[in-house]
Design brief:
By secondary structure, this protein is an alpha/beta fold. 37% of the residues lie in helices and 8% in strands. The protein has one domain (5-272). A hairpin with a 6-residue loop joins β6 (221-223) and β7 (230-232).
Amino acid sequence: MTEPAPAPTSQLAALGPFCTFETHPENSELTPPWRALSELAEEGSALRERVAAVRASLAANYGRPPEAVEQRVAASVAHLGLMARVISPALGLATLHGLPSRPLTLGDLRWRSSLSGAFPLSLPREAVAPAGAESVQHGYDPGSAPRPVDALAEDLLTGPVHDLVAAFAPFSLSRHILWGNVASAVNGAATGITAATPSLAHPAHAAALTFLQHPRLRNTHTLNPHNARFTRRSCCLIYRATPGGRGALCGDCVLSRGRGDGGQVGGGRSGRGRGGR
């Protein structure tokens, strides 16, 4: 067995914790406590346990018993956190022009369950080996040339992301909310990268725009033509976790139009902040 190792691209660390990841040899055995992310999309208890843990955490924030928080609210928050963790490294790689050399599947991704922000994530080393001089420095064969961002968006949104969206169907969440969570995670990744490294704002938002223009995300959001402000066309429901269901809204929430800015949190980074569980 081989333990995952830090990703060789040191620049990823500068983009924030949601963009960082570790690497493992392709097809290597799983070493506990690492688990395959695909278990969340399979029949079994892993996803129910994840949702239950998020539910308990949300309830504890307000001194409430877990059953006081709707299960579908916890499921949406859990889904948003997973989307943020899966999408952010891809946006980070796209921003640094180091795209994976092949499509990634849920079976490729490994994780260690945690509720504290960005849980540990590991990607196959051969698929994300850095190109050019840095790959020589780290002893990697660059292999095939990096693929374009639109191909990355297609692979991710019709592969791992689609599988995780489908897995949450039993929790009575509409696809409108689930795909809105995906769009929010994309925008949150670009916002987080820009905040961490302002010089990369243009490539980060260009990569995010490519994702947001994909057919699966095209109708999930609006972009203000004057300031490019992102607003999703759905709500992740986290505000309903509070007593009375009057909690703060995320900065990109469609409901913020009715409340004004005073009740917002997160500046549009809901998947990387309160939702990043």
